[in-house]
Amino acid sequence: MSGVPSGAAAPARPEAATRPVQPEERLAAALARLILDPAAPPARHIAVGAASPIPAAACWLVKLSGNPVRLSLLHKRSGNPFTEGSRELFDLTGQGRIDLFFLGGGQIDGQANLNLVGTGEWPGTAVRFPGSFGSAFMYMMTPRTILFREEHSPRVLVERVDNVSAPGVSPPGVFRRGTAQALVTGRCVFRFDAARARFVLESLHPGETVAGVREATGFGFDAPDAVPATPDPTPAELALLRGPVRDEMLETYPEFCARVFGPVTTEGVAA
Amino acid sequence: MQVPTPDDLARLVPDGALLALPPDNSLPSLALVRALVRRGARGLRLLGVPVSGLASDILIGAGCVAEIQTSAVSLGEAGFAPRFTAALKAGTIRVRDATCPAIHTMLQAAEKGVPFMPLRGIIGSDILANRPDWLVIDNPFAAADAGGGGGGGDPIVLLPALQPDVAAFHAAMADEAGNVWVGRRRELATIAHASRRVLVTVERVVPGNMLEDERLAAGTISATYVEAVALAERGAAPIALLDEYGADPAAVAEYARMARTEEGFRAWCERHVYGDALKVAAE
User: Fold this and answer.
1) CA atoms within 13 A on the CB side of B80
2) What is the pLDDT of residue A216?
3) What is the pTM of this model?
């Protein structure tokens, strides 16, 4: 896991030899690298919310690579980690015992503000999204949050969100443990510089250019002169994703596993 | 003893009641929701604990709801909740957005019988700006130099206690003593403790008293809190019930598809709400 990622897709399993790296696999590997970033606060306990197969895959990749991390998957039906109901997640987080969480948003702006409520006037008179869930609490009480949204377009990544479900930065004196570490999209990886409340382009996925990303992004961001490519998963990571990670995720995300990790051969799942 | 039906329970929910409902991953009673639609309930104020799903969307579509307080409304993998979205657009329901831990905290205050409880976070969110009933005070216990901003401010949100008139959910089983068993979904215990009345549908009624069984007691809600229990086999379906049965994603997707329009929603109700009643009446 800590090795230098290989640029080549060299599947470890013979039956996967012809299957190219899937974009979701690359995103999972990119998220896993962010989780393990030695410069960030340690991720000993990670919580993953509902409908988040790629963040979940990233967490399993980290864990099954041998890193000591506790994963609490909120919507795991069997063996759910919480025995006091979903409030236990928030109580743990309130104490600072959840180190890392993932959030997304219908709109995300250049200051890492999140809008999960809707566009137009409050509470979403133009386009209503489902709602803020626990974001207004989790974003402020977790030492770091990785923002993840596959759609990278000017309608999602906006200059200023219409409504703030959860603020990216807070004034001095307001208690908060952390904010966004990074924003990972279907086009690139941004780091978030909290002191300047500004995103910095870190890597581009295959086929993307800085100009193309600027075109697709509603907010201004910084970019170094040379922006590296987002690395492909290493052969070892790919083998983990398509094997043990897939096995862990099958119960919760059967469709995702079949689509991304290839034909399912496990007995009884093909239907 | 004649065990009540979901329709009997529906008559115990007055129009205008503040009705607490769990989300789709925590034992919603779709059986009671269908009965409320058949009863023609009106003016309900729904509380999603802490979010809302299929049950709330059906009640909204059927015109049973005046207001919803929740942290999100969603059909999960099946997408946005169509009748909620339509009602919000049409202005036929009042929507009071919250955030998950705030709803848990307001219920915990009611559970303790105290007027409010504090909660971290939220400051800077427009949720707070749209909740005049939520206050911000300076932490009275903060050291003078706490908070990093000087002046010892340390602002923190205070949330009022919230006591639902009625809580309704589906449990795996009840016993002869009137206790109900929800396994690890203990947020249902918080809802039950906080609410004035608790109505529960169950898969089955078992003999004895579960509180006398050490292995069952921790997942049991005492009859102290439970007003009435009705028998409803597969009463959570098409939502999952613990390890007893899984969700039926095709059925939820069918709802999501049909409920995109008012006409489609009515057709769905004819099939899945009133169809039930006809079947029951014929039995």
Assistant:
1) 17
2) 98
3) 0.92
Buried b (16+ CB within 10 A) or exposed e, A217-255: bbbebebeeebeebbbbbbebbbbbbeebbebbbebbee
Paired tokens of A112: 């890492």
Paired with A198 in beta bridges are A193
Average pLDDT in the B98-114 region?
A: 98
Query: In angstroms, what separates the C-alpha of A226 from chain B's closest C-alpha?
Result: 36
Q: How far is A197 from chain B (nearest CA, A)?
A: 15
Cβ distance of B99 and A134 shorter than 8 Å: yes
Q: Which superfamily is assigned to A14-261 in CATH?
A: Glutaconate Coenzyme A-transferase (3.40.1080.10)
Helix axes B100-112, A87-94, angle to 10 degrees: 100
Residue type, B5: T
What residues of B are in contact with residue A167 (Cβ under 8 Å)?
A: 124-125
Q: What is the pLDDT of residues B15-68, one digit of tens each?
A: 999 999 999 889 999 999 999 999 999 999 999 999 999 999 999 999 999 999
- Give domain limits for chain A: 14-261
Minimal Cβ distance to B73: which of A82, A131, A134: A131
- pLDDT class of A9 with cuts at 50, 70, 90: very low
CA–CA separation, B113 and B77 (whole Å): 38
* Separation CA B256–CA B81 (nearest Å): 7
Domain B6-99+163-282 coded CATH 3.40.50.1110: no
Closest residue of chain A to B118, computed from CA coordinates: A94
| A106-142 tens-digit pLDDT | 999 999 999 999 999 999 999 999 999 999 999 999 9
If one counts every other C-beta atom within 10 angstroms of the C-beta of residue A18, the result is 8
Q: What are the domain boundaries of chain B?
A: 6-99+163-282, 117-160
Report d(CA B67, CA B49) in Å as an integer. 14
Does A50 touch chain B if contact means CB atoms closer than 8 Å?
yes
User: Best mutation site among A52, A87, A91, A103 for testing chain B: the one with the most B CBs within 10 Å?
Assistant: A87
Are A179 and A141 within 8 A, CB to CB?
A: no
- Most A CBs within 10 A among B99, B130, B243, hence the mutation to make, goes to B99
